[in-house]
């Protein structure tokens, strides 16, 4: 009984996640994401037996997103290495040539605020970001990239593009672009 209740709650979460996606594209999104999450013929776990009130792995959006993220992390580690994480690269991209506070960085890099603080601190220890407190507001911390970070980005960005290409590789270009557009609706819902 509890499993059925939880499954209905999960269906509600999935419906809310998919809400920004047009109704006629939701199954398409799940199907494309499943091919990214389970590439190269990796078997998708079979749907649950009749009468078992759970979503199957191949239809559960949160499962597919986690699995695709894990695949992305494995590709990143192999192509880029472990010296700079994908989250650190996202922070570099978020900052760009500006000086931003950590809350803004967290939002732009899609990481939570406490993790952004940890990432920034590690990057500062390596001399890749500078941290300053403006005279006008000593409580505020502004973060900017150092010349060393810009030099590192010249090497990292082509590798990040290779990660992106490999992650998309189970799909033909048109379908990969379509998945990107649909995922953009999920990630940047208004």
Automatic annotation (TrEMBL):
<dbReference type="InterPro" id="IPR036390">
    <property type="entry name" value="WH_DNA-bd_sf"/>
</dbReference>
<dbReference type="InterPro" id="IPR036388">
    <property type="entry name" value="WH-like_DNA-bd_sf"/>
</dbReference>
<feature type="domain" description="HTH marR-type">
    <location>
        <begin position="58"/>
        <end position="188"/>
    </location>
</feature>
<dbReference type="InterPro" id="IPR039422">
    <property type="entry name" value="MarR/SlyA-like"/>
</dbReference>
<dbReference type="InterPro" id="IPR000835">
    <property type="entry name" value="HTH_MarR-typ"/>
</dbReference>
<keyword id="KW-0804">Transcription</keyword>
<keyword id="KW-0238">DNA-binding</keyword>
<protein>
    <recommendedName>
        <fullName>HTH marR-type domain-containing protein</fullName>
    </recommendedName>
</protein>
<keyword id="KW-0805">Transcription regulation</keyword>
<dbReference type="Pfam" id="PF12802">
    <property type="entry name" value="MarR_2"/>
</dbReference>
<dbReference type="InterPro" id="IPR023187">
    <property type="entry name" value="Tscrpt_reg_MarR-type_CS"/>
</dbReference>
């Amino acid at each position: 009984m509890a499993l059925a209740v939880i499954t209905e709650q999960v269906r509600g979460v999935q419906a809310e996640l998919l809400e920004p996606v047009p109704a006629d594209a939701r199954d398409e999104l799940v199907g494309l994401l499943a091919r990214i999450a389970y590439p190269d013929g990796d078997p998708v776990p079979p749907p649950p037996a009749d009468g078992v009130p759970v979503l199957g792995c191949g239809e559960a959006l949160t499962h597919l997103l986690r699995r695709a993220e894990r695949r992305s992390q494995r590709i990143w580690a192999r192509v880029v290495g472990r010296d700079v994480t994908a989250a650190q690269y996202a922070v570099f991209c978020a900052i760009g040539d500006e000086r931003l506070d950590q809350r803004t960085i967290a939002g732009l890099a899609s990481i939570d605020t406490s993790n952004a603080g940890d990432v920034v601190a590690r990057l500062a220890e390596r001399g890749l970001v500078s941290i300053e407190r403006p005279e006008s507001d000593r409580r505020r911390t502004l973060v900017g990239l150092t010349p060393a970070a810009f030099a590192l980005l010249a090497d990292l960005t082509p590798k990040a593009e290779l990660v992106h290409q490999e992650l998309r590789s189970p799909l033909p270009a048109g379908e990969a672009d379509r998945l990107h557009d649909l995922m953009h609706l999920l990630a940047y819902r208004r």
